[in-house]
């Protein structure tokens, strides 16, 4: 049960560091508030997995102690439960006095140590594969957390919560936005225990940075947060469109925050926030990798499910954000053109008054590296941007502390720009940074930092430089999570100009993406599903790795080359001259013929059978 002392104190206590004590029969995680063994402690029974609470823990020579930064959670594999701890982190920045940390190190500890005969040889091999997948996502994803700040929520949401005493008194995890709470599944044991609220830390996946800059002798804090959704999370060609519940692939919320001291009262700060979203086109469609550079787009239009999923997506978005300004940047011809037309027709059919559709063929409008043409969107959407506005409040210190009320809201953002391209990465990043710059100009004018003329360069060369580079870094971070490489077109985001060196780097990234998307992403999709609990291993189920083989493309290419070479040699030796005139050609001409025939045959074969050589997920939904 939960004692009276716990009920009266837990919600307002702040823990920023823990001590982890490992015993043969239990794990003890203690709030680091003084002498080891004397702080508030949760005890995890390694045999039964039960979690209890105590004040202090008796240390002895059977225990090992180390500092940890947070509990990531517990994951269940074939051997049983494993505890995942964050052991290292760096401070990525602050929101007011709240440190935001990025995970840089972790530890995975089995509840029950391995012993001979615990698993069969086949199961032991599978267990190691599961552990490798877990390491894959923990090593390669960007996870951020804070013990004192509601990192899953926008400032506008925090301001709303602070007007409700009951909600404001809740621990961070209870009021966290489930869409961005990446370790929610792994914390089930702690949540259900009812005694570990102050040890539960919501973790987001995405990007965070804060930076200080002077504008006309006034200090400005600039913050950018991107929160990737854990609903329908996945990799580029594996997760597209929406599911039946309306969850869009690669959905993310990006919030731009600015703090500036009030001009008349330096003890008061003005805070501005602007939220945008991105997400895959909210139709049921696929684009499975198949060795081709641009796989075929498959749109599912039959039955009631596509319309139902479309409605559910926008019903949820409207409830969360208000009016939806959908900026669709994909091509209006070719395979993308069919998808654009389907999106437009879905909007017309469903007729949601709070959904505004705006198609902008980015590649056509910005051809010949004229990326500045994207600013045409500002004119097209001028009245919508004005009506939408942004969040603006005045505040004192200690924003976000549990139970505090510090915001005096001046205005709220009424709606959101929902931008997409095919991947919701490269073209989307360019457009979002432009919208963000446009709104930031208005915010700086409102704060009295700049006039209309100065606003175009944000009133400071250094601030303009910081803005561009932060948005370009955000683009890279978001792209790495979904495609495996940095974003394309970031030279424009950083400098305001398209360059040939940037185009060359885009080429390198495109080739790298092609390889990863075809030959690596299936494993990474499995890692995501394992972390989020979309797939839970069980010794009672057949191995997902059995009878799931990826075709050996390299082996096929070598074998076919040898077969073709042998066939041509045999024909050249035994066939009639009329059929094999190449027997009298020079070596270079014969080589040219061989390469040509080989390339044509391989291309024709892979366009039909390429899918079986791609790296596909093992965990079928």
Structure description:
It is a single chain. The protein is 36% helix and 23% strand. The chain has 18 helices and 20 strands. Strand 12 and strand 13 form a beta hairpin. Helix 12 (426-446) runs antiparallel to helix 13. It is globular.
Q: State the total count of DSSP E strands.
A: 20
With helices defined by DSSP (H or I, 4 residues minimum), what is the helix count?
Answer: 18
Q: Kindly state the mean pLDDT as a whole number?
A: 90
- Main sheet specs: 13 strands, mixed
The low-pLDDT segments are 1-14, 398-405
- Derived from helix and strand composition plus strand pairing, the structural class reads alpha+beta
Report Rg.
28 Å
Distance between the termini: 38 Å
Name the beta content range: 15-25%
Helicity level: 25-40%
Broad shape = globular
Features:
globular; 621 residues; alpha+beta; 23% strand; 13-stranded mixed sheet; 18 helices
In short:
The protein has 621 residues and is of the alpha+beta class. The chain is 36% helix and 23% strand. The chain has 18 helices and 20 strands.
Please specify the SSE layout and strand pairing.
Elements (H helix, E strand, L loop, with lengths): L3 H6 L8 E5 L3 E6 L8 E6 L5 E5 L8 E5 L1 E8 L2 E16 L2 E13 L10 H20 L2 E3 L9 H7 L3 H4 L3 H4 L12 H6 L9 E13 L2 E11 L23 E10 L7 E10 L6 E2 L11 E2 L5 H17 L2 E5 L5 H17 L4 E5 L2 H4 L10 H5 L1 H7 L2 E5 L11 E5 L4 E5 L5 H21 L14 H22 L7 H6 L4 H20 L1 H12 L20 H22 L12 H23 L12
């Amino acid at each position: 049960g939960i004692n009276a002392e716990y009920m009266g104190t837990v919600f307002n206590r702040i823990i920023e560091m823990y001590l982890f004590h490992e015993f043969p029969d239990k794990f003890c995680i203690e709030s680091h508030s003084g002498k080891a063994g004397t702080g508030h402690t949760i005890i995890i029974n390694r045999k039964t997995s039960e979690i209890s609470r105590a004040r202090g823990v008796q240390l002895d020579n059977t225990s090992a102690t180390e500092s940890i930064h947070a509990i990531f959670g517990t994951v269940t594999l074939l051997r049983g439960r494993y505890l995942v701890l964050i052991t290292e982190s760096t401070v990525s920045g602050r929101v007011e006095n709240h440190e935001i940390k990025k995970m840089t190190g972790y530890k995975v500890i089995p509840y029950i140590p391995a012993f001979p005969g615990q698993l069969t040889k086949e199961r032991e091999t599978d267990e190691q594969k599961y552990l490798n997948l877990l390491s894959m996502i923990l090593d390669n994803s960007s996870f951020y957390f804070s013990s004192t700040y509601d990192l899953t929520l926008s400032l506008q949401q925090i301001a709303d919560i602070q007007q409700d005493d009951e909600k404001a008194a809740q621990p961070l995890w209870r009021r966290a936005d489930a869409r961005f709470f990446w370790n929610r599944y792994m914390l089930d044991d702690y949540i259900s225990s009812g005694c570990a609220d102050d040890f539960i830390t919501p973790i987001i996946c995405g990007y965070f940075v804060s930076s200080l800059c002077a504008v006309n002798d006034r200090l400005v804090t600039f913050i950018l947060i991107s929160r990737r959704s854990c609903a329908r999370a996945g990799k580029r060609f594996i997760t597209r469109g929406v599911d039946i519940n309306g969850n869009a692939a690669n959905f993310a919320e990006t919030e731009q925050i600015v703090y500036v001291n009030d001009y008349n009262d330096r003890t008061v700060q003005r805070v501005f926030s602007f939220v945008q979203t991105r997400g895959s086109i909210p139709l049921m469609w696929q684009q499975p990798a198949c060795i081709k550079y641009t796989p075929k787009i498959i749109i599912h239009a039959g039955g009631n499910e596509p319309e139902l999923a479309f409605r559910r997506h926008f019903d949820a978005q409207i409830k969360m954000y208000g009016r939806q300004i959908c900026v669709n940047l994909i091509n209006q011809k070719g395979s993308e053109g069919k998808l654009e037309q389907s999106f437009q027709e879905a909007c017309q059919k469903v007729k949601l008054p709070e959904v505004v559709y705006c198609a902008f063929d980015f590649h056509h409008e910005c051809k010949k590296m004229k990326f500045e043409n994207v600013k045409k969107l500002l004119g097209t959407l001028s009245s919508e941007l004005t009506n939408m506005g942004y969040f603006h409040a005045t505040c004192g210190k200690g924003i976000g502390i549990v139970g505090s009320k510090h915001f005096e809201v001046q205005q709220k953002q009424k709606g959101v720009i929902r931008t997409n391209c095919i991947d919701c990465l490269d073209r989307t990043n360019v457009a979002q940074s432009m919208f963000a710059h446009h709104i930031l100009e208005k915010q700086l004018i409102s704060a009295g930092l700049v006039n209309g003329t100065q606003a175009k360069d944000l009133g400071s060369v250094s601030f303009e430089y910081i803005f561009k580079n932060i948005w370009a870094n955000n683009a890279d971070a978001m792209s790495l999570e979904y495609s495996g490489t940095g974003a394309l077109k970031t030279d424009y985001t950083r400098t305001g100009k398209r360059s040939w060196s940037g185009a060359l780097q885009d080429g390198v990234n495109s080739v790298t993406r092609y390889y990863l998307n075809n030959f690596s992403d299936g494993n990474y999709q499995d890692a995501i599903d394992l972390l989020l609990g979309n797939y839970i291993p069980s010794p009672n189920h057949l191995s997902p790795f059995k009878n799931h083989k990826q075709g050996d493309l390299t082996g096929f290419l070598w074998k076919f080359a040898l077969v073709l070479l042998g066939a041509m040699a045999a024909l050249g030796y035994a066939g009639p001259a009329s059929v094999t005139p190449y027997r009298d050609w020079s070596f270079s001409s014969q080589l040219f013929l061989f390469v040509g025939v080989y390339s044509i045959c391989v291309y024709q074969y892979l366009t039909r059978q390429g899918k079986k050589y791609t790296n596909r997920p093992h965990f079928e939904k």
